[in-house]
Write a sequence for this structure.
């Protein structure tokens, strides 16, 4: 167990819970990469932090509940719950997320999150879209493209 890396992960999620983007950014290596089922691959601290700032600005009433972390000298894991109201639909979302990390220079250089896309789409988008289409590759691609377009607009 590497207590410094556990503390780093904890500091990141505590900052997310406070919507403190500057504190979140201080946990990331300049060359960080981030991936999840929606924003598949983002490269560099500026781009990754633009995504987090977008999420914090859009997720109405965003609450991050951190459930704990484990880490060694090279990698770590964490579990957290995101609670927010989806701005486009007004629907309440409770998303259970598993995160994986890699470290370099005692900072997070790789941050990858996994969650159940179908379950998320049912909560976020409701019926019929999320329920009927949330599992289809075409629907997932449409959601991803829309999210990336929003990120591009937000970052400019």
């Amino acid at each position: 167990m590497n207590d410094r890396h556990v503390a780093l992960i904890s500091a990141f999620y505590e900052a997310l819970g406070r919507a403190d983007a500057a504190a979140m950014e201080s946990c990331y290596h300049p060359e960080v990469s981030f991936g999840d089922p929606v924003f598949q691959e983002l490269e560099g601290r500026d781009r990754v932090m633009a995504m987090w700032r977008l999420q914090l600005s859009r997720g109405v009433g965003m609450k991050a509940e951190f459930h704990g972390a484990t880490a060694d000298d090279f990698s770590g894991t964490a579990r957290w719950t995101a609670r927010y109201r989806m701005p486009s639909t007004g629907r309440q979302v409770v998303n259970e997320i598993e995160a994986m990390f890699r470290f370099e220079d005692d900072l997070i250089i790789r941050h990858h999150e996994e969650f159940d896309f179908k379950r998320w789409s049912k909560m976020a988008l409701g019926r019929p879209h999320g329920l009927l289409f949330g599992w289809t590759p075409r629907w997932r691609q449409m959601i991803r493209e829309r999210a990336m377009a929003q990120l591009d607009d937000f970052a400019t």
